[in-house]
Amino acid sequence: RIKGEEYDQFIDLFVNAVKKRFPNVLLQWEDFASVDAERILDRYRDDLCTFNDDIQGTAAVTTGTILAAIAAGGGELKDQQIVMLGAGSAGVGICLQLKQTMMAEGMSESEARSHFYVIDRDGLLHSGRTDLDELHQQLAQPAENLKSWDCDTTGAVAFADVVRNAKPGVLIGATGQAGAFTESIIREMASHVEHPVIFPLSNPTSRAEATPADLLKWTDGKAVIATGSPFDPVDHNGVTHTIAQCNNSYIFPAMGLGILASRARRVTDAMFIAAAGALKETSPALSDRTASLLPSLTIIRDVSRKIAHAVALAAIADGVADTVTEKEIDQRIEETMWHPEY
Question: What is the dihedral of CA 11, 12, 15, 18, to 10 degrees?
């Protein structure tokens, strides 16, 4: 495959051709390598109507599901310490959107950043490390916040150190490493919070950081769980827990619907925050903690309508779409929506 400057020139040629042929296009990036995905999005996001599903779609569906999980456990986002194991584009994208959501709720950037603990192969990202790029610096913990920590070593701050000292209410895995969430670490987490929110998001199933059955066993049935791969419901002490699969299919069709219906010219961060918030409100777990955190795909069209409506309103508020009434938004959504009739 081509790489480097030749690769970038080809992408640029393609984008310019699309803009010329389809001036009102919505361009969705899918399955680009993490080394390219972020910089390509940054390069073109202000040049046309575009988003990257693996970065922004994954972040939105995970954010919405986490918001539902926190609410199901009786908590609030502003009170959560969040640990992300894995610092690739998906993990970083999730954390950045959660941080933006905190800021939208009134936190300063520095206050919001202090709630995140992102761990890569060399340990916790913090300001004392000299190997972090600009993107990862946005999620680095201030080194002074770690001075009082009790760590097992004097070198890298390990996963177990972070869970023991930060006492997170939310733990997310995006590592591709099966078994990364060990029994001792999960039990440590559960000793500090009543309903730990635990999302082993890696797929396929064989690479999940832990199985839902083990997570429920290690937390005495108190964990609130979503996964990146499909898992059957789990019976624990006579209670059936339905496990949601945190899948982008809840977001990217609805984003496209809302963008096209509103005639949006750009895709903003606020539009993804709105999508996540709308998804949260559809969660069955809001009325039953053991129910699925995400609605059944059998009603995905109704869910998509609600998300698209929220996305369109956010686009209008950001000044990147037509200024129309909510009634007209809903009418446009129905007109834009594909109906499988032959």
Answer: -110
What's 200's domain CATH number?
3.40.50.720
Confirm whether 11 is domain-assigned.
no
59-71 exposure pattern, b = at least 16 Cβ within 10 A, e = fewer = bbbbbbbbbbbbb
Tell me whether residue 22 is in a domain: no
Backbone φ, ψ for residue 269 (5° rounding): -60, -35
76-90 tens-digit pLDDT: 999 999 999 999 888
273 located within any domain:
no
Total tally of structural domains belonging to the chain? 1
pTM: 0.94
With respect to residue 184, please indicate whether it lies within any of the assigned structural domains: yes
- Among 157, 162, 153, which Cα is nearest to 121's? 157
Per-residue pLDDT reduced to its tens digit, 180-194: 999 999 999 999 999
